[in-house]
Amino acid sequence: MYRRISPEVYRAEQRLRVVTAAATRDADTTIADVARDHDCSPAQVYKLLRKTRDALLPAPPGPQPAARAIADTRPTTAPAPAVDHRALLAVLTSQHVSVRGTQEVFAALHLPVPTRQHVVDARRAMGRASRRLLARARAQVRARVTCLAGDDIFFHRSAVKVLLEPASGAVLDVMRWPWREAEDWRLWIEDWPALRLFVSDLGTDLTGAARRAHLAHQADLFHERKWWHERVFMPLSRREQSAATAVLRAWDRATRVDGPGRRLGPEAIARAEAARAGAEEEFFAAVRAEELLRTLFEPLDPRGARWSDEAIEDVLASVCDHLVKVSQDVGLAAWMHVYTNRARWCAHRILWESVEVELAPDSTWTRDDVLRACIELHTTESRLHDATEWAIARAAQVRLTTLRDALASACPNAKQVKHAVRSLLGRPRRSSSLVEAFNSALRVLQMKHRNVSDDLMSLHALAWNLRVRKEGRRRGRSPFERLGVAFASDHRPWYEVLVEEMDQP
After folding, report:
1. What pLDDT does 69 receive?
2. How many angstroms separate the CA atoms of 199 and 165, rounded?
3. Largest CB tally within 10 Å, which of 3, 141, 345, 432?
């Protein structure tokens, strides 16, 4: 495909040639000569030189002066827009504004100031409406949600359970639940008939709930990296630092001129250096083991294919080979951790079984062939996007055409299969870190309010689910819209959806 240079790039190159000619001219060449050679005016040449010098000069230290905004003092006769008091109350509540602060905002906007009891009652009504909307969303998506992530947070030592769909980031339920047994989490997750995978940390209540519900359990990547840092890397790092300090002391005792004690010989220095090198090698062996284990969290194996039992066993064997090089007090604990949870590192691969593939009656392809072609289609698209050479880009284009034609003839629902494969590859269901992000938003409630009700948490969950993301990989749509919730498809602000629900009888 021919790609022409954009006009902006062409004009920039022209200006660069003018500046270069003017800056490198000899004594016999004037600015007028440069302007005539490049078909522009001398004033344009001087302007480009001035801009170039200003750009190359270092900026003065300290903060840069902000542009002073000029207030528009022109009189206006347009009436002030009508303000929905309930929408304003909902926004102020979602921004953790206190009751007194809410009253001051209404007064500053020259609106009727609500009483304290009115604000409290309105917040309760909004919370109840939010719970109804969350329940309606759960009813719409219950039959097709195949993966959920869950975790507990604590408000004044009282547990709050959060259930979230990891691909869209939608919070499906949040509620106080003072009990923390496996049976409690089982009650939360058994209400989802299509559920295949549960993602969480390795708490006994969460793992026990998945086992009782006969679900595959995926270990949380966020908590696992934290576990390795605290239980493996930190002890080994302290040991290596201690050995390095011992080496410095040994060298000091061996080389100092004055001071008490015997001077150390080369053998003592060599023993100290060997101890430090051994501690360093143990640390890097643990790092290599963790890096290998982390590959199991990826949607595809290192060869770019779906994970198989043999590939997983090979990776776990390599992890154990590195862990045996670590001292027993740390290496044995890490090995037991890896072995005990060996079925949870790559449990996300079970979601490939939930991809519905239809085969044409006259096709010789199998289900695995279709999935393999969709994976290759995804990787080839990435190769085309990143290609910088024409030969590579053209080869990728030809391969894409071949794959698309073959998929269209072998699989009637190829479009749906490609969408599902792209979702599994682009957003692996391996972490509940989004639950932690929502928990961070809820913790502000604990600091602002003495008592946080389930309805108030539901209000914040609704705002989380209906706000359109402005940045990041999920920008452009809200979590509920990505999940396919009906009342989130019209891009209305979340408070308008809430006010509409409050008006329902």
Report:
1. 57
2. 10
3. 432
What CA–CA distances, in Å, run from 230 to 153, 225, 345?
20, 9, 19
Q: Is the pLDDT of residue 2 over 50?
A: no
315 three-state secondary structure? helix
- The C-alpha atoms of residue 380 and residue 472 are separated, in whole angstroms, by 24
Pick one of 1.20.1070.10, 3.40.630.10, 3.30.420.10, 3.40.50.300 as the CATH number of 123-220+431-502: 3.30.420.10
What average pLDDT does range 162-176 have in this prediction? 91
The first and second tokens of residue 376, run together, are 């290759």
- Got the DSSP string for 103-120? HHHHHHTT-PPPPHHHHH
Residue 492's identity, in one-letter code, is R
* Collapsed DSSP state (helix, strand, coil) of residue 154: strand
Q: Which residue bears the tokens 């109350």?
A: 89
| Size of the chain in residues | 505
> Each residue of 288-321: pLDDT tens digit?
999 999 999 999 999 989 999 999 999 999 999 9
Question: Quick one: CA torsion of 167, 171, 173, 176, rounded to 10 degrees?
Answer: 120
- What is the model's pTM? 0.77
How much of the chain is in helix, strand and coil states, percent to nearest 5? 60, 5, 35
CA distance 86 to 504: 14
- Gyration radius of the chain's alpha carbons: 32
* Tens-digit pLDDT profile for residues 329-371: 999 999 999 999 999 999 999 999 989 999 999 889 999 999 9
Residue 333 burial by CB count (10 A; 0-12/13-18/19+): exposed, middle or buried?
middle
Q: Show the tokens assigned to 222.
A: 């966020």
Q: Are 291 and 281 in contact (CB under 8 A)?
A: no
According to DSSP H, which parts of 221-301 are helical?
A: 221-228, 234-255, 266-294
